[in-house]
Write a structure and sequence with these properties.
Helices cover 51% and strands 11% of the residues. By secondary structure, the chain is an alpha/beta fold.
């Protein structure tokens, strides 16, 4: 079964799409091994992994990153496709490239292109709704050509400045031209609870851990009770990895050693990584080929 069909069936079955965001194949395998049914490749984590920022990412970089994750796991991958890297024509190519890379779905936002770094300061540069709907329309037309099962999520950043009514209006207009789901950024608990009831399509919530604008963070159970169809954990894996890596490296630099993991834990962790990348299979292949001819 194709990854796009897998994602469609999860949505049709009412499966809550809880999707941690990762930026490499190892992270994808960790997400799958933990039992999640889908993974996400976000612009934030891809940009940060390159020590730049999401607005500076090229489409090629994001396609390459997402393809690497998708190739290494059996669950579907949804990707942050930003503003589609341009107008309607460019957005059509964006859909085509991600679909060909094995991605199951993407979200497209109503930010201007090129996106500005001030996005990270929660400054939304929203394009007119007519232009945004046009981009979604042509994205859906391209979807019909390359893979009708490919999922398109309409994302709007206007809620931060204009409120939930404006944001839902944009989502609903995008749904009229073929968007399957919606994504917006409620400013408070009241807007978060109202949005799913107002939207014409199922909504995905974004958990923005560490956000500085007071956006609420909810448990999966709370989001399900509010009527959300899924949740993107936008920074969860990266924040935890960075926190522990920075802490360990600082101690190593200061003292010359790090004693917070036992030798046994190091062995377990290293074995876990090797299991995730499938080293045993590589050993078997070599033992059946080149290792049989190894000089003694």
């Amino acid at each position: 079964m194709s990854k796009t069909r897998q994602l469609r069936e999860l949505i049709a079955a009412g499966e809550f799409l809880h999707m941690p965001s990762v930026h490499d194949g190892l992270g994808g395998r960790a997400v799958e091994a933990a039992g999640f049914k889908a993974a996400f490749v976000g612009g934030y984590v891809t940009g940060a992994s390159r020590a730049v920022s999401e607005p500076l990412l090229t489409m090629t970089e994001q396609v390459e990153t997402a393809a690497n994750v998708a190739e290494r796991i059996s669950i579907p991958v949804v990707v942050d496709a930003g503003a589609g890297w341009g107008d309607a024509l460019h957005t059509m190519r964006t859909v085509r490239e991600f679909a060909r890379a094995g991605i199951a779905g993407l979200h497209l936002e109503d930010q201007l292109f090129p996106k500005r770094a001030h996005y990270h300061k929660y400054v939304a540069h929203a394009i007119p709704v007519e232009e945004y709907v046009e981009k979604i329309d042509y994205a859906c037309r391209e979807r019909a050509k390359v893979d009708p099962d490919f999922v398109i999520i309409a994302r709007t950043d206007t809620c931060r400045f204009y409120g939930v009514e404006e944001a839902v209006m944009r989502i609903n207009k995008a749904a009229e031209v073929g968007a399957d789901m919606g994504l917006l950024f409620p400013r408070n608990s009241d807007e978060a609870r109202r949005a799913p009831k107002m939207a014409a399509v199922p909504l995905i919530y974004v958990q923005s851990l560490g956000n500085r604008d007071g956006r609420p963070v909810f448990s999966r159970k709370e989001l399900q009770e509010m009527g959300y169809a899924g949740c993107i954990e936008a920074q969860f894996a990266m924040l935890h990895a960075f926190f522990h890596m920075e802490k360990a490296l600082r101690e190593l630099a200061e003292s010359g050693r790090y004693d917070q993991l036992t030798p046994e834990q190091y062995v377990q962790c290293r074995q876990g990584i090797e299991d995730a990348i499938g080293l045993d299979e590589y050993y078997e292949i070599e033992e059946s080929t080149v290792e049989t001819r190894r000089a003694v």
